[in-house]
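Friendly challenge for the regulars: who can give me the structure tokens for this chain first? No prize, just bragging rights.
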Amino acid sequence: MNKSLKTYLFLIWSVVLITSCSVNKYIPEDQVLYTGTNLKLNFDKRASDKNQLETELESTLYPTPNSKFLGMRLGLYYHYRAQGVKFGPITKFLNKKFGEQPVYLSDVDIARTEKLLDNRLENHGFFTNQVNSSIAAKDKKAEINYELLISAPYFLRNYQLDVDSSQLKEAIKNSLSQTILKPETRFDLNDFKQERSRIDDYLKSLGYYNFNGDFLIFEADTNQLEGRQFDLYLRLK
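First reply, four minutes later:
Bragging rights claimed.
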């Protein structure tokens, strides 16, 4: 490694240390900086779409912590510096251009996040889960760890049509040959919405122009079944 590169790396590391320390000293005594989350998924039965589920679960994590660049929270640093009694035009420009409002641990609603995580899992057929959280704090900074113990999902046994109108019932029945809801399909609200939209399109193609997909509802019954199965009933509101 040549001398100029060593000098450059030393300068970068020095800036990282100085900026990090500077940010710490600006954090109010009654606040802790929120630095992000760790999400750990433990499946009772591993899902084939684990990555997709994890991405959806991560989307519920709010708020987003202050950004970092090479280990530095420059946006936060510029914001803090601009709050002083005296600051020059350069600091003002940098704050306007890159400054970020601090995100504190107190801004995070952990209980609400736990409910959202569990709700997303239930939407995909994973019920009776355990969602645990813990806070790891050090040097006026903290991150939140969420650990999800995810139960085995529910799978479809029977899909039944329960519609009183004989004419409409026959039309919907004819459309079921194209259904995506096959036996052993995992419970998933997205699939139910897609099925409802598909039936709506089919009925409109037959001239039921005043029909609306919102007229259709799905009811799942797991009470009489074992082995995490459910029966699905399609009904009209």
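The beta strands are 33-43, 130-138, 141-150, 155-162, 216-221, 229-236. The chain has a mean pLDDT of 87. Your move, everyone else.
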